[in-house]
Amino acid sequence: MITTSEIGFHLPGLDLSLEIVANVEDLVTDPEDDDQIPYWAELWPAARGLAQYIWERIDFQGATVLELGAGLGLPGLVAALKGGLVTFSDYKRESLDIIARNAQRNGIRHAAYLLADWRDFRCDKKFDWIIGSDVLYNPSLNPYVARILERNLAKGGQLLFAHPSRPVTMRFLDEIKGSLGLKEEKTVQLVTVKEAGVPEFNQGIDIHHLTK
Fold first, then answer.
1. Mean per-residue pLDDT for 64-81?
2. How many structural domains are present in the chain?
3. Average pLDDT, whole number, for the chain?
4. Which partner from 34, 103, 111, 140 sits 20 to 30 angstroms from 94, CA to CA?
5. Residues with Cβ within 8 Å of residue 1, at least 6 apart in sequence
6. pTM value?
């Protein structure tokens, strides 16, 4: 059983109640196995930045949205509140369970949940949008993401990725931009985190919006 706690996430005109993991370190079973490190259980600055960007700039208006490596699902929850038909995907069942409870507690009734490993991503559906926050940091996994984007992005679809200025992420997105023939609009979203028990953060998060 994972112990959770409740926090508020606030933006102008938006107040979310979020169930989060109370102590992420309790979930570490094998620090030598990257698959067992609970990255999914942190509310990362990139997720906060992408959620803010979506809230302020994107109206999905019934478009289908796939969130890759959803973790606690904050950007996808905000996308759903902006009219998106969101499929949250992660390779940890615990992640999807918490997201489902957060969707319910914030009045989101229409959402889908996909338990899937990028290395064996069994989903044939095509999405109008594919989004992700700080998920493109591992060069060994990025080729699997590239295949997902090629297979699961609908014709005329759009990508939205956020990260804390990681060179490996920038290189990957440059490659995808070329292979899929996309144009890029890059924005820096200032994210400030001052919460008890959370490392203080006051930096820009890179947002990449890629379109045809």
1. 98
2. 1
3. 94
4. 140
5. none
6. 0.94
